[in-house]
Known about the structure:
- The structure is a single chain.
- By secondary structure, the protein is an all-alpha fold.
- The protein has helices at about 15-30, 35-40, 40-55, 65-75, 80-85, 100-105, 120-130, 140-150, 150-175.
- The longest helix is centred in the last third of the chain and has 24 residues, at about 150-175.
- Mean pLDDT is about 90; it is low at about 185-200.
Amino acid sequence: MNSPAFIAPPQKINPLLRIFIWIADKVAGKKLLPPRLLAWAPKVAIASGILEAAATKPEGRLTPRLLKLLRLQVSFSASCAFCFDMNAVDYEQAGLTTAEVQALQKLTSPQKIRSLSATERAALQFAIEVTATPIAVRAETAAELRSHFSEREYLLIAATCAQVNYWARLMQGLGVPPAGFSDRCTSTPRPPSPLNGEGGER
C-alpha cells in the first residue's frame, strides 16, 4: 500500500492486528491508512483502538448534536484535516446546520453563533481552551461548564475533547491526509496564529 503520509506501513503486520485492521476497514467502509501505520507499534495500535472504543456515547445532556459539535470544534481548533473529514460525516443527521459547521470551521467564537444554546456555547468554549497550545482552561470556563452539566457529563466532555486531540496530534504528526469520509468540509481550517496561539475571531 503506497502511503501519502510521512511514513509507510510495515510490510509485515502482526496477524492479530490484521484482524483489527479488517474490522476497522469494514466499519469505515474503506481501506484506512491510520491503523496500518499504527501496526509499527502493536501496543500503541491496541491502546489507540481501546481509546476509540471508549468514545463517549449520547446520554443525558450529551446529545448526538452536542457530541458532534465538540468533535468538530476540536478538529477545527487543532487544524486536523483527517479529523474534521471524519467527524463531519452526517452532521445534518445530528442536528447541525451547514452555517453552524462553517462558523466552527472559521473558528468563530461560540458566543457569536446565535443558533447555539447557552449549554452548547459553554461546552464549545471549553473545547477551544482545552485544545489550545499551551492548554489554557480558565476557571470561569470550567465553572460555566459545570453549571450546565453533571460531574460525570463534565468528565465525558473533557474525555471527548482529549480523544479528538489525541487523534489530531497523531494524524498530523504522521502526515495522514483526509480519507474522503465527507464531501461537505473540504477546505483546511486556518491554523492558529504563531503569535498568540489563536485563529479566527475570539
